[in-house]
Specification:
Nucleoside Triphosphate Pyrophosphohydrolase, nine-stranded mixed sheet, globular
Length: 172
């Protein structure tokens, strides 16, 4: 029986059009550069989980999150599908800090370290960078270093934005 694990991934871009990446220091994906995210906790919405994980992993507080995609990851002989909701924020506050889990660093678009990221990242990340409608991706892995099957397509849905109440009340 297949089950789904709902996760988030948030990508941060600044006014210089750089992307904040985090080097995973422990756990699943250790040693790889990635965005910031993790599990959705009971009682949380998916955007709330994305915002919480961003703060926990790099110290930034998103003022809004824009959903840009959905990625499903399946690992051969593992009954759990990782359902990853991908968000972007360009408005945030706080100071970028290293945490026990992530070591963050800003990258120019042309310097993103794809050779130190998951194998699927060079496939879907350019779609994210160009903007446009939300995307959907599916990747079937054998272990962690072989992709057996992949799919990437447009959902034809426009990006959707969540503005956090605490931010709206501060702006009023």
């Amino acid at each position: 029986m297949t089950t789904r694990k709902v996760l988030t991934l948030t990508l941060v871009r600044n006014i210089a059009d750089e992307v904040l990446m985090g080097l995973k220091k422990r756990g699943f994906g250790e040693g790889k550069w990635n965005g910031f995210g993790g599990k959705v906790e009971p009682g949380e919405t998916i955007p709330q989980a994305a915002a919480r994980e961003l703060t926990e992993e790099c110290g930034l507080r998103a003022h809004y999150l824009t959903k840009v995609g959905l990625l499903d990851f399946e690992f051969l002989n593992d009954p759990v599908i990782h359902e990853v909701h991908v968000f972007e924020t360009r408005e945030y506050s706080g100071t970028v800090v290293e945490t026990e889990e992530m070591s963050p660093k800003w990258y120019k678009i042309e310097d993103i370290p794809f050779n130190e990221m998951w194998l699927d990242d060079p496939i879907w990340f350019p779609w994210y960078l160009k903007g446009g409608p939300q995307f959907y991706g599916y990747f079937l892995y054998k272990g962690f270093d072989t992709i057996l099957k992949q799919e990437l397509k447009s959902t034809d849905l426009p990006p959707t934005t969540t503005i956090f109440e605490s931010v709206k009340s501060q702006q009023a």
